[in-house]
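[job 4471] stage=fold_predict status=RUNNING
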Amino acid sequence: MSKTDPIADYLTRIRNAAKAKQRRVDIPASKLKKAITQILLDKKFIANFTVLEDQRQNVIRINLKYSEGRPIIQGLRRISRPGIRRYKPAEDLPRVLDGLGIAVISTSKGVMTDSQARREKIGGEVLAYIW
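[job 4471] inference complete, writing structure tokens
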């Protein structure tokens, strides 16, 4: 597990599981990862998820979604990293594949998609692109 960038580790685990055509993937839990996973569920990129209680750290079990044998999640890309933070005001938030994908934004009102942040006229840190 990556100690310096847990979000990149989270995205990499999902990407690798989808490429290997696995049905589920287990990821160490945190509040931020749960929020991103909830966005993936709301936008129908994943089938469902559960949080498993553990002695040390809870685990998020994500059930991936496939269509005709191909994963719904075609790509994941980390944008803001610990060494290079990327902040954008509401009017400059990115559009991923002209609206076909989503950008995950960490704002002062919580983690949300780019379209939600634009609607609420709030900027923030661009965490990742998902398409």
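[job 4471] summary: The first helix runs from residue 6 to 19.
[job 4471] exit 0
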